[in-house]
Amino acid sequence: MHIAEGFLPHPWWEIWFALSLPVVAYGIWKIKKAVRLEPGIKPTLALAGAFAFVLSAMKIPSVTGSCSHPTGTGFGAILFGPSITAVLGFIVLLFQALLLAHGGITTLGANTFSMGIVDPVIAFIVYKACTKSGMNFYSSVFLASFLGDIATYVTTSFQLALAFPAAVGGVFASFKLFFAIFAVTQLPLAAIEGIVTAGLFKYLKQIRPDILTKLRVEGSPQVTESPHVAGDAQ
Amino acid sequence: MKKMGYLIIFISIAALLLLVYIAGNQATNGAGTLAGGDDDNLLVNQIGGISDGQYKPWFTPVWEPPSGEVETFLFSFQAAIGAIFVGYYAGYYKGKKEVSGK
Fold first, then answer.
1. I want to staple A48 with a disulfide (CB 3.0 to 4.6 A). Which of A76, A80, A179, B32 is the partner?
2. What residues does each domain of chain B span?
3. Is residue A53 within 8 angstroms of chain B, CB to CB?
4. What's the predicted TM-score (pTM) here?
5. Partner residue facing B57 (CB), from A6, A44, A47
């Protein structure tokens, strides 16, 4: 995603800023509250940020004015929920816009909306739905980050389509075209993101089972019954 | 119940892939193939402005990496910093657990 600097014309970049900033503000408030209640989550919070940093740096060229890469925000969404992840996404995008000319300041709102808000929301909902339906923990994590990643590109295509409707067929035709180009590069990338996220969760469960309990991530019986958690209880 | 869940998930993924396939097919109809690698020409035909160079970005980045090599370096540098943190976190808590486990 990362719509390039200046690629969203007048009404649109303000609209996406207006939609993203309240969520980011709410997320900052949530982070403050969560850290006050549980100061031990700080390193894990930074881990989620670093993970998004690493994954969103792996870009390959795609549509003009944008690019393709994994987002890495599904990890934070499963751990901390969407609004806190929106703040992490915002910080990552701001750094990349200023230091790497990757994305941009004017398109920051739109990029935060797709990578920092829609992706975590979808990942969070999918994760909750999967674990509720009794699915294996790692499969749920994979699906959540996979679908969250795809949702990011659906959103970016939609943002570009709204700003650049096709001469024939309007916004919808334009959307289909953008998404068709994104899909080629994004389906494998989303699968990679899903696998990496599930792997990181496996590691997190081995080294810090306490944090998963604290953040109430382990909603599934699969995790509570796991020998790691049971063995590490004391 | 559990089987139901898997079924729903499987169907939704299949539907998503089908949708992408159909969208890809329709987008390529009448305007050459996507596989041909000439995405830009395709875009020119269907969406005037963004890819044929008519659209001029109205705002340019405040600072841009001076060359392709520098840009690649900065990207790998960024990934390295992130990876250092992820590795530090994993190692720190693994060691801590081993010590406290004894």
1. A76
2. 1-58, 61-102
3. yes
4. 0.77
5. A6
